[in-house]
Structure formats: structure tokens, C-alpha cells
Amino acid sequence: MASRPNPIQDLKNDIVSALRSYSNSSADFKVTTKNEEAGTIPYDFFLAKVDPKQVIPRDTKEWEEAQWQMCVLTIYVDCSKIEEHQIIRGTDKPGSINEAIEKVVEEHIKVYDNGNESCPAHYGTDPRLFLIILLPFEIAIGPKSAEAILPPTCSARYKSEFSSGLSDEQMKNMRHRLSLEDENHSSRVKWEEEWTEWRARTARRSTSRNLFSKAIDNLKKLWYKYK
Hints:
This protein is of the alpha+beta class. It has helices spanning 7-23, 47-50, 61-69, 84-88, 97-114, 156-159, 168-171, 186-226; strands spanning 30-37, 71-78, 130-135, 139-141, 145-149, 175-179. The strands form 2 sheets. It has a 4-stranded mixed beta sheet with strand order 1-2-3-4. Strands 5-6 form a two-stranded antiparallel ribbon.
């Protein structure tokens, strides 16, 4: 009986093969996979790519929640058995180690999208979601996509895309698949619009509350003045 496909293990094996080829080394590269909270990953590796325009307001409850509610599938590769010059400057091979590993990821994306003789299409995890970090050199490759958190309330337009007509409470568990490669990609535009509109709605409510509070204060002053 044929064994079940294991695309994540295949990806890790191919990353190691690319590292060995690029560094001209047969060293043992230890590879581990973790689903990390976004806030535990260096900012430039993930959150800066997800939200470069800072549509999620910083120094707010929403920003704090984004850092632990958003996760990133992370492949850590321990490259401590080789010297820095073998991986930073490479050997006599053209291109960088980033390009070599990106090529591996692209091949696995093709398999994920189209399948092959040993693995059906869309089996396992989309390779676009993986962040690959080479330690201890802090070299990051990817991810190409992210499952991004939505604002506390979404527009009726956005919710209408779900045939079940989800409530705001149900929408809290939803994630928006976001392309990180093209800042003008429709998925990014739609996601940024939702956050921008939510901020505008929140600002209007805040202004209304402030005006109402001010009116009440003025009435209290008049009452105390003439009682």
C-alpha cells in the first residue's frame, strides 16, 4: 500500500537539499516547524509585510490582539553547522540563498496548485503560507500569503460574500487570505478597505459620544447655575 503524501516533510527535505547544494556542505541541518503567534516573530519578518500601511491602528487593543490572534507557519532551519560565509556570500553559484530556497517553494506551490503523480492538488498546507527562517543568521524567506485578522466589525458588503450571512460575532473567527507579494492585489485592497472603513466608523461613533457627553455637561452646568 502506498504511503500517504507528506508535502510538508517533502518541502523541508528540499530546503535542506538546496542549502547543502548552495553551501557545498553535507552538514546536518536540523529543521523544525511551528505555528507561531505573529507577535513572537521579528516584526520585519511578518507583521511589516502583512500591514505595511498600518491600517490596523497601532498602540490599540486591536493591534495587541492581532499579534496573538494572527499566526504564521514557520520553518526553522538550524544552520549552525556551517560557516556564515557559506550561506551569506554563497560559493561560486549565482544568486543568493534566498533565491535558491524561493525556487524550492515555487516548485512546491506548483504541486499544491496542480498536483502530481504522488500528491493530489490542494493536499496539505499551501506553501505560500510558510515563513522560513535560517538560524542563527536570521535570514527570512516568505511568506507569500497570510491569514490576516479582520476588524472587530466588517461592512455589510464584505459579510454578504458569505452565503450564510455571518454575524459580527461569527466573523471574529474568520481570517482573510492576504497576498503579500503585490501591494495592489485585490485581496490586499479589500482587506485594507475593511480596516480603513472600520476606523472611520469607530471615529464617527467616538465623535458622537464626545458631542453627547459635552451636551450633557452643558446641561448640568445650566442646571446648577439656575437651580
